[in-house]
């Protein structure tokens, strides 16, 4: 009780009565937004179960179609044959080499793209002249399928890794740069104003206010940039095949086609799909969710 | 029955004004489209004084506040402030959504290069001052509108007073510029926050220039109400309030004059 008695001076201070303080406390309690966390089992039930059911259904339909023998075996192999091919490739260790070849290229290409696209995006977003000059080009490039660059790249760089990375860069850089630009554009103008009023220098404002505020848009651009990196890489690997380029998933797919080996073709498609989605689910989705949740922007589970 | 104001008698104010606006004009645009937002405005606010700037919507209140805040430059005239940088508060709390309440309050101190431990302590102190003790680790989206505006007030106080401390003179207690800070809140919350602001003002001795279009709010808060006319904005009249002022009568007076100023535009 001794500690409490020091608050007696409060009564001498001018200010609201106890009554008003209670009203204030009550308002705080009533108006505070409550966040509803869905329990884990419910999130599992609504988030994980439906896609699994869909995949199982897909395989069942596939199996039925195969069993009904509408198409010849070399056009529609059985699920068993396809999964068998994948299993065998893993058992032999070949699958790891193929996947590693592609993933390491995609990741390196993606990182290169980030290094190129970030300053580019910053320039476009902050310098009006640069924006009007290359902003539209950047947006246009985003809708150009990067496979269109493969012939040019082969002529310029020959069948080397440079060709592959060039195509990946052309695919990913516009998405990442545009993501950063739209992230910066969406920062409420009041934030930098408040920062300036509090005495922020230009560099402090960029570092402590603009960049963190633009992070959700930038992350969206990174996620899309990854998807484009992966797609562009596959396009490049399928078209530009050569022993000097190593043997990735695209080359594996291409080999399947030239051998008329349908189970290998479908196995390659499945692996390409799984790697692409897997990286997004393992890295980009959690990062995005974390950032959005910290700002109270996350929707859904 | 007369409703007198709830405030305590102010100490006599001495020394140079905390902010001094001399013959300030502001014109937006040029030629035919030019809008004269302010025309020859004089306004001087004493250290520790609470002044309300009252006027119809679009009369140039925000423009004047931005000039005083240094966010914009006057077309002519001078703005002088004794404190290095007045702090500003807007209708929206404008908190950084990725920082918790404590770090938002710390931000101006961080920008001023003050070390981690010191600014932490100061942020705790200021949050307690606005009755948000123990809420330092809440993010803005976890707080109600009124609580967010109190965090913004604590942050503005951090910007205006730095590390604060005992025994500081009125000049060092900082200048707070507020642009309709409670305009977006519901009536009950606004009422509570007005009382809180008065309490904080009396506890800190900060100079306050408060913009509003609400006559009742200005009468309740200010020691001096300054009425601005519209297009161009000029100071029309001032009213001083004191502890024995009849609030209802003053409210009637000011409302009458404000209606007069507004209807002059309809003729
Ligand atoms: N940046 C600007 N460009 C052009 N006109 C402006 C600008 N800012 C304000 N004005 C004009 O100046 C006048 C005063 O605006 P403002 O200070 O925002 O009024 P208040 O805050 O009193 O409602 C208005 O007529 C408004 O249209
Ligand atoms: Mg305004």
DSSP summary: helix tally of chain A: 13
Number of domains of chain B: 2
N- and C-termini, Cα separation of chain B? 37 Å
Average pLDDT confidence of chain A is 87
Shape of chain B: globular
Q: What string gives the helices and strands of chain A in order?
A: HHHHHHHHHHHHH
Strand content of chain A: under 5%
Could you name the CATH class of the domain at 103-294 in chain A? Mainly Alpha
Descriptive notes:
The complex is a heterodimer of chains A (301) and B (267). With 301 residues, chain A is mostly helical. Chain A has a domain at 103-294: MetI-like fold. Chain A is built from 13 helices and no strands. By secondary structure, chain B is an alpha/beta fold. Chain B has a 6-stranded mixed β-sheet with strand order 5-6-7-3-8-9, with helices on both faces. In chain B, helix 5 links the parallel strand 6 (175-179) and strand 7 (207-212). The longest helix of chain B has 18 residues, at 187-204. The termini of chain B are far apart. The chains are: A mainly alpha (301), B alpha/beta (267). Chain A binds chain B through residues 13-16, 20-21, 23-25, 27-28, 30-33, 35, 188, 190-191, 193-201, 204, 208-209, 212-213, 215, 291, 294-297, and chain B through 7-8, 69-71, 85, 87-88, 90, 92, 94, 96-98, 107-108, 110-112, 131, 139-147, 155, 159, 188-189, 192, 195-196, 198-199, 202-203. Adenosine-5'-diphosphate binds at residues 28-29, 35, 37, 55, 57-63 of chain B.
């Amino acid at each position: 009780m001794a500690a409490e008695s020091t608050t007696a001076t409060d009564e001498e201070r001018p200010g609201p009565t106890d009554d008003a303080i209670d009203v204030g406390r009550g308002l705080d309690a009533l108006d505070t937004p409550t966040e509803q966390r869905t329990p884990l089992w419910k999130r599992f039930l609504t988030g994980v179960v439906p896609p699994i059911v869909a995949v199982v259904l897909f395989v069942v339909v596939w199996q039925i179609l195969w069993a009904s023998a509408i198409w010849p075996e070399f056009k529609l192999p059985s699920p068993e044959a396809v999964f068998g091919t994948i299993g065998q490739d893993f058992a032999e260790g070949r699958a790891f080499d193929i996947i590693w070849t592609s993933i390491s290229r995609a990741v390196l290409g993606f990182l290169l793209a980030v290094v190129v696209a970030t300053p580019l995006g910053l320039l476009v977003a902050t310098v009006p002249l640069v924006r009007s000059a290359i902003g539209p080009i950047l947006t246009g490039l985003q809708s150009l399928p990067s496979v269109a660059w493969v012939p040019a790249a082969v002529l310029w760089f020959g069948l080397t890794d440079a060709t592959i990375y060039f195509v990946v860069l052309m695919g990913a850089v516009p998405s990442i740069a545009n993501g950063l630009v739209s992230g910066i554009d969406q920062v409420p103008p009041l934030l930098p104003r408040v920062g300036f009023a509090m005495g922020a220098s230009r560099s402090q404002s960029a570092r402590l206010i603009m960049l963190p505020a633009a992070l959700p848009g930038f992350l969206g651009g990174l996620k899309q940039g990854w998807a484009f990196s992966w797609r562009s890489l596959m396009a490049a690997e399928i078209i530009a095949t050569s022993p000097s380029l190593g043997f990735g998933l695209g080359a594996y797919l291409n080999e399947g086609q030239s051998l008329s080996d349908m189970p290998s073709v479908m196995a390659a498609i499945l692996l390409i799909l799984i790697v692409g989605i897997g990286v997004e689910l393992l890295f980009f989705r959690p990062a995005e969710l974390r950032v959005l949740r910290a700002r109270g922007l996350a929707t859904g589970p | 029955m007369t409703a007198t104001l709830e405030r305590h008698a102010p100490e006599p104010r001495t020394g140079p004004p905390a902010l001094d606006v001399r013959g300030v004009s502001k014109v937006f645009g040029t030629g035919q489209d030019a809008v004269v937002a302010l025309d020859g405005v004089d306004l001087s606010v004493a250290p520790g004084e609470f002044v309300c700037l009252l006027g119809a919507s679009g009369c140039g209140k925000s423009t004047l506040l931005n000039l005083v805040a240094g966010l914009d430059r006057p077309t002519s005239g001078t703005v002088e402030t004794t404190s290095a940088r007045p702090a500003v508060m807007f209708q929206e709390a404008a908190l950084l959504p990725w920082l918790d309440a404590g770090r938002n309050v710390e931000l101006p101190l961080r920008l001023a290069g003050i070390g981690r431990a010191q600014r932490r302590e100061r942020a705790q102190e200021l949050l307690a001052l606005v009755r948000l003790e123990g809420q330092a680790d809440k993010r803005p989206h976890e707080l109600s509108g009124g609580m967010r505006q109190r965090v913004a007030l604590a942050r503005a106080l951090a910007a205006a007073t730095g590390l604060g401390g005992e025994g500081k003179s009125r000049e060092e207690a900082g200048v707070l510029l507020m642009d309709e800070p409670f305009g977006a809140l519901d009536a009950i919350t606004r009422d509570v926050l007005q009382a809180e602001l008065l309490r904080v003002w009396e506890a800190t001795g900060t100079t306050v220039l408060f913009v509003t279009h609400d006559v009742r709010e200005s009468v309740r808060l200010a020691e001096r109400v300054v009425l601005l006319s519209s297009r161009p904005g000029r100071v029309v009249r001032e009213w001083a309030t004191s502890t024995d002022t009849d609030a209802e009568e003053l409210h009637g007076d000011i409302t009458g004059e404000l209606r007069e100023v507004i209807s002059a535009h309809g003729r």
